Amino acid sequence: IADLPAPLDGLRVVQLSDFHLKRRLDPEHIRASVALANRCAPALVALTGDFVHRGYRYVEAIADLLAELRAPLGVFAVLGNHDHAVRSALGVRAWRRLHVAVDAALTSRGIRVLCNEAVLLEHQGARFAVAGVDDLWSRRCDADKALATIAPDVPRIMLAHNPRTIERVGKHRCDLMLSGHTHGGQIQLPWMRAPLLGRRKQAFWSGLYRLGNTHLYVNKGIGHSIPIRYRMRPEVALLTLTGPEPPA
């Protein structure tokens, strides 16, 4: 990250995404993922949406599981399209207040849910920002509102469930965007990278991308939509911030 203050060099961020808690997903799978995240000893935890798969039944349960996360600078979250009960870019909702319930459940456990806003943090005297936007398909995503209030010289991490939110950043500084949504395609075949993903999703489907001065990391997720993964493991991602290499 350009202009990264020395105290932030080596800062550890853990990202978890796409839990999709439901009847066909064993809560122990999520509990083990939380334990792994804590063993990474992160300074900050980022949760990038889709906490529940469908409806209200598991809202409190997923919040209880994630309440065990530990990070001295905090646990931050954004909501995904399933948290808004939106299954496509058309924005049609099955449960109109589901996102309110998910937000309230996470907040009550000490998890800060960011909705088109940014929080300024300090670590050993150095400042950086964590910004978060609402889900792209919810039609409430406002990257400009989230990033415009941060001073240009402040490094920032942005949480956005859908990786195509990167196209909404415009001219704002965005050093690192953390996203999920794709599950890495869940299935990878030797002759086809991600057959379950449409053409637009395959633009940013899994792993680390570099777009200008922005790094985009797309997490493979913890849960699943259809109950199968093949050659695409669930993921707890550990990212370490570092400044640019000095000139030769």
Radius of gyration using CA atoms only: 17 Å
**What is the assembly state of the chains in this entry?**
single chain
Beta-strand share of residues: 15-25%
Order of helices and strands: EHEHEHEEEHEEEEE
How many beta-strand segments? 11
Supply the number of helical segments. Answer: 4
Structural classification: alpha/beta
User: How would you sum up the major sheet?
Assistant: 6 strands, mixed
Describe the overall structure.
The structure is a single chain. Helices cover 15% and strands 21% of the residues. The chain has 248 residues and is α/β, with parallel strands linked by helices. It has a 6-stranded mixed sheet with strand order 5-6-7-8-10-9. A 5-stranded mixed sheet has the order 4-3-2-1-11, covered by helices on one side.
Features:
single chain; about 250 residues; alpha/beta; six-stranded mixed β-sheet; five-stranded mixed β-sheet; 4 helices
Write the SSE topology.
Layout: E1 12-16, H1 27-39, E2 44-48, H2 59-66, E3 75-78, H3 98-108, E4 112-113, E5 117-123, E6 126-132, H4 143-147, E7 156-159, E8 176-179, E9 207-211, E10 214-218, E11 237-240
Parallel strand pairs: 1-2, 2-3, 3-4, 6-7, 7-8, 8-10
Antiparallel strand pairs: 1-11, 5-6, 9-10
Helix pairs in contact: 2-3
